[in-house]
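Re-run with default settings, no changes from the original entry. Doing this only to confirm the output is reproducible before filing.
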Amino acid sequence: MLRSAARNLGWLLASRSVLAILSLFYLGFATRTLGVVDFGRFALITGAVQALTTFVGFQTWQIIVQYGVQPLHDGDSPRLARLFRLAARSTCRARSSARC
């Protein structure tokens, strides 16, 4: 069990290292290709999108864990079903503008 966990950790660290090295090449290529001004715009847009994604990221599982324990414990199936429907609709609307 411990050997398997260590092997998986090794693969995880190796893949992260490879991705870090590749991202350095990608940033170097992007900087040379775009130039200073356009690379600054690129970095600003990328940072803004990542911040927006963090703020808008709906984690509906937290709502279910926090508010679903009591209805589950009480055996209140309709209330729990309403909570699941709300979470599903929130997730669907957060991922796309289409109706679910």
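The first helix runs from residue 2 to 56. The mean pLDDT is 87.
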